[in-house]
Amino acid sequence: MSTKPNPPQPEPSLDSAPYWESLKQGTFAIQRCTACHQWQFPMLGACRHCGGTLALQPLSGKGTIYSFIVNHRAAAPGFEDLLPYAVALVSPDEAPKLHIPGRIVGIAHEDVAIGQRVTAEIVDHPGGEWKVPVFRAGPT
Amino acid sequence: MAANDPMVVGIGRSPYSRNSGRTTGDLATEACRNAIADAGMALSDVDGIIEFNVGDSANSLNVAYALGLPGLRLPVDLMAGGNVVTQAVAMACMAVQSGRCKAVLVFRSLNSRSGQRIGTYTGDIRVGGDDQYGAPHGYMAPGQWFAMWCRRYMHEHGTTYEDLGQVAITTRKHAGPNEAAIMREPITMEQYLASRWIYDPFRLFDCALEADGACAILVTTREHARDLKQVPVQMLDEETFMGRHPDSWEDMGHLFSAHSAPPLWARTGLKPADMDFACIYDCFTFTTVGVIEDYGLCEKGGAGEYYRSGKASYGGECVINPHGGLLSEGYIHGMNHHFEAVMQLRQQAGARQVPDAKVALVTAGTGPFGGGLIYARA
């Protein structure tokens, strides 16, 4: 039996549950307003721009690194084997003002840079039934 | 000048340490008692308490009870961190100015080293709310959010690791003569650069020094201050600007301070050059860099040079964090900046006294949320 701790698991709210369910089905989608068409992240109950009704809409997964850090210390259990590793805030092409957090894969942490192009991938999240988006660096 | 101008009339604290061996309630009560005694005010005149409590703290009503008070007219417990310190002081000032209260304590008590270490999580956890998106990537600690901000800031304004190091080195130098400071040994740039990475761009010496302790100030009006022991320190004005979760801020090249600074200067008619010293909330070296640039103590991208050339120290332009700040005195969550500002303005700071200090800027918070206020010797 493994004694390795699990990484933190998401605890969805009523607003965010559809986002997590969509990932489970293999689709990386965030909210978009059906009235004013603005994209929204993180998940809310209604559009913050106009109060309109939100619906999940798939993203292309393509985006740009807005900023990044390299974790040399694990803030929470479950990441000890990965250290050091990069986490970025990614601006999706469809909504460049939004920042979506995720691990950067496919590149050494020393080579991660602001402005790099990335593509989202959906991976299994250890310790439960969830899937999460990670971002693969490379040409999009 | 008005009879109801808000004045800080008392300051108090517990010892600062790495392991208090005491409850946060006990520490808070000691700090509050000391602030009341420092002012020479009757305990029964205190009718408001404001505290803030991310991690561990002590409830305002419990502290009132422990002080021997029958109750309070204004108990306020803010579910917030160091971003609300100047707002909390401003609320105390509004309470006495309006006549709702006669005297209000503002305190922070925490065992942030031996008790609840902010940003450190253990065991199998489920994370909801704002951090549910980052936590599955091991990204959920304040040090990580603001490392993210720092990287973007460096990209936009040319700030370097060595610039951050200048803040750590100067702040440590200031802590040297401060007997209350936990870390007083000077550090060199070599030592700074050799200190271990935490969350790159942050090394160990970029991060606040986790500490146990409590700190309190007591606020009343000019009229009531007349009968008390100390030279009162006036809170001239305060401005806060708060956004939501750090990841949601669109422009990480500008902090809360880009919004809170201009109204404060405009309303007070003061300018950065009028500040004899400043107590800048320094949870990370980066915070000081971004905040002093936004407040206009130096130009954007110029903080490293400001420190390197000595302008942030004695004999320069504006002594920043003469007590050693959160980086070296200890992480008393920014309340200790108010204690220091009042000591300096009363000319009671001993070996680290800023000569003839009359006016000071004190800030709180970092990233998308914080505020600043100006104290002046009355």
Quick rundown:
The complex is a heterodimer of chains A (140) and B (378). Chain A is mainly beta.
Structure in words:
The complex is a heterodimer of chains A (140) and B (378). Chain A is globular and about 45 Å long. Chain A is mainly beta. The mean pLDDT of chain A is 95. Chain A has one helix at residues 17-24; strands spanning 9-10, 29-33, 39-40, 54-58, 62-71, 85-92, 100-105, 117-124, 131-137. Chain A is built from 1 helix and 9 strands. In chain B, 32% of the residues lie in helices and 20% in strands. Chain B has helices spanning 24-39, 60-66, 85-97, 142-157, 161-175, 189-194, 222-225, 257-268, 285-294, 303-308, 325-329, 335-345; strands at 6-13, 48-52, 74-78, 104-111, 126-127, 197-200, 202-203, 212-221, 233-242, 277-279, 319-320, 359-366, 369-377. In chain B, the strands form 2 sheets. Chain B has a 10-stranded mixed sheet, with helices on both faces. In chain B, strands 6-7 form a two-stranded antiparallel sheet. In chain B, helix 1 (24-39) packs across helix 2 and helix 8 (257-268) packs across helix 9 (285-294). The model of chain B has no long low-confidence stretch (mean pLDDT 97). The A-B interface holds A 5-13, 16, 41-42, 66-79, 82, 84-85, 87, 89, 97, 99-103, 114, 125, 127, 130, 132, 134 and B 119-130, 132-141, 143-144, 147-149, 151-152, 155, 196-202, 245, 247-248, 250, 252.
Strand % of chain A is: 35-45%
- What structural category do the secondary elements of chain A indicate? mainly beta
Low-confidence stretches of chain A: none
Uncertain stretches of chain B: none
Number of domains of chain B: 2
Percent of residues in helices of chain B comes to: 25-40%
N-to-C SSE string of chain A, H for helix and E for strand: EHEEEEEEEE
What value does the average pLDDT of chain A take? 95
CATH uppermost class of the largest domain in chain A: Mainly Beta
Shape of chain B: globular
By CATH, the topology of the largest domain in chain B is Peroxisomal Thiolase, Chain A, domain 1
Query: Going across the major beta sheet of chain B, what is the strand order?
Result: 3-2-4-8-1-9-13-12-10-11
Helix content of chain A: under 10%
Helix/strand/pairing class of chain B, anyone?
alpha/beta
Under the CATH scheme, which architecture of the largest domain in chain A would be assigned?
Beta Barrel
**Which pair has the most extensive contact?**
A-B, 43 and 42 residues
